[in-house]
Amino acid sequence: MDYSENKINILFITLRSGWGGAPKHIDLIIRNLTSEYNISIAAPIEKPYGEEWYRISGKGNYFELPHRKFSIVKLYELRKFIIRNNIQIIHAHGKGAGVYARLSKLLLISRVKVILTLHGFHIDAYNSLQKRLYLLFEKLLSNLTDLFINVSQGEQNVCIQYNIYKKSKAKVIYNAIPQIEPGSDKIILKKKLNLPEDKILILSLVRFSYMKNIEATINIAELLKEENKYFFLIVGDGEEKQNIENEIRKKNLNNVNLIGYKTNSQDYINASDIYLSTSRWEGLPYSLIEACMFGLPAVVTDVVGNNEVVKDDFNGKLFKLDNLQSAANYIVWICTNKTISDLYSKNAKKHFVKNFTLDKMVSDINQVYKGILKNDT
User: Fold this and answer.
1) Half-sphere exposure of 268 (CA within 13 A, CB side)
2) Edge-to-edge strands of the sheet including 37-43?
3) Which long-range contacts (CB under 8 A, 24 or more apart) does 254-257 make?
4) Residue 285: is the preceding peptide bond cis (ω within 30°)?
5) Which of 61, 117, 191, 212 is found 20 to 30 A from 157 (Cα to Cα)?
6) Using 50, 70 and 90 to split pLDDT, how confident is the model at 31?
7) Taking the domains of the chain in order of start, what are their residue ranges?
8) Is the distance from CB of 122 to CB of 150 less than 8 angstroms?
9) Number of Cβ atoms within 10 Å of the Cβ of 354
10) What percent of the chain has pLDDT over 90?
C-alpha cells in the first residue's frame, strides 16, 4: 500500500483474519478505500486474509496480534506501533479487537479516534455472572469509544436495551458485497462441481462453530432423509467439523455432504435451490447476503441479523431455534411450490439491491471516517 502525508492514517484491528464474515468485511473496506487513506493493520497472520494483508501492507504497516487472545505485552507494543505510524483513527472489528483499541486510546491519552464495529452483540451466549461482568466491562469501555457501528438494526436495538451506549453514539451500516450476476445455469454447475443433478440442493456456507449451530442443520437433514430428493451441502471449515462428521455417521445420513472450505463458494450458491441457516445468533451474515444477491430463497433462524436479510414470507421463511420441524416443512413447501419459489427469488434480488450493495456501504464508512475527524476541527 502506498503511503502519502496528505492522507488520513487508519489502523484496522481484528483478532481473526481467517475465513469468516468480519475479516471479509475488513478486506472489502481496505480494497475499496486504499486510494483515500493510509491503511495499517493489526491482526493475526492467517489464511486467507491475514497473509494477504501482510503481503500488501508490508512489515512496517502490519502489526501481528494473537488469534482471539489478549496479551498485555502486545498491547504496549501496539501503542508504540500507533505512535510510530501516526494513527488518527482506529477501526476495531469484534469484541477482542475493541479491547485492544480502547485500551490503546487510554494508554495514549491522545486525540486518536476509536470506532468499533461489533459484528454481533451476543449477550445471550453468556451465563448470568458472565453477562453482568461483560456488560459492566463494555459500559466502561464505551467511554473510550467515539462511535459504534452496528451491522444490523437488531444489533443496535440490543445494545441500546442494555445501555451500552446512547443512540447518538452509534450508526447502522449494513454489510455488503460487490454485485455480480449468476454465471452458468444450475445443471452446468452441478456437473462442474460434481453435485447430484437429480436432487434439490439445500446449501449452508458456515464456519463450523457453536454459534452456527450446524448440528441443527444435520437434524433437519435427518427429518428429510426419507424424502430421498433433498440433499444438504455444507461449505466451510472450523473447530467443530470433526463433531459434525461424527454426528453424520451416527445418524447414518447419506443426504449430507461436507464440502470443506472453498474459494468458489458463489458457484455453490448458484448451483443450489435453497439457503439454510440454523445459527444461534448472527451479526449480519455475508453468506446469506450472497444468497440474497443470487436470488436464492432462504430458510433461516429468526435471530438478529438473519431476520434483516430474510423477511418472512417475502424472500424466505424464518423459524424458531427450537422448532426444526417447521424448517423442514418450509423447505418442502418452497421446493414444491414454484410460484412461491420464484416470488421469493425475485424479492431476494430486490432486497439485495435496496440494502446490501457495496457502493452504499463504502460510501457510508467513508463519511464516518471523514466526519469523525471534523469534530476536532
Assistant:
1) 24
2) 62-64, 37-43, 8-14, 89-93, 113-117, 147-150, 170-172
3) 254/225, 255/221, 255/224, 255/225, 255/228, 255/230, 255/231, 256/218, 256/221, 256/231, 256/232, 257/231, 257/232, 257/233
4) no
5) 212
6) very high
7) 8-176+357-374, 186-355
8) no
9) 9
10) 80
3-state SS, residue 11: strand
- What fold does the segment set 186-355 form as a domain? Rossmann fold (3.40.50)
Instruction: Tell me if 8-176+357-374 shares its fold with 186-355.
Output: yes
94 touches 79 (CB < 8 A)? no
pLDDT one-digit tens code per residue, 325-371:
999 999 999 999 999 999 999 999 999 999 999 999 999 999 999 99
Residues paired with residue 318 on neighbouring β-strands, in sequence order: 300
Q: How many CB atoms lie within 10 A of CB 60?
A: 11
Cross-strand bridge partners of residue 357: 177
3-class SS string, 303-334: CCCHHHHCCECCCEEEECCCCHHHHHHHHHHH
Confidence at residue 376, expressed as pLDDT on a 0 to 100 scale:
61
Q: Which residue has the cell 505512535?
A: 83
Grid cell in block for residue 225: 432423509
Phi, psi of 263 (to 5 degrees): -80, -20
Please give the pLDDT value at position 181: 78
Distance CA 177, CA 269 (A): 14
**Is 8-176+357-374 CATH 3.30.565.10?**
no
Nine cell digits for residue 234: 455444507
- Say if strands 147-150 and 170-172 run parallel, antiparallel, or are unpaired: parallel
The number of residues in the chain equals 377
Q: Are 347 and 314 contacting, i.e. CB atoms less than 8 angstroms apart?
A: yes
Is the per-residue pLDDT at 189 higher than 80? yes
Residue 245, φ and ψ in degrees, nearest 5: -60, -40
Q: Are strands 230-235 and 147-150 parallel, antiparallel or unpaired?
A: unpaired
State yes or no: pLDDT of 167 exceeds 60: yes
Record the cell numbers describing residue 309, joined without a space: 436479510
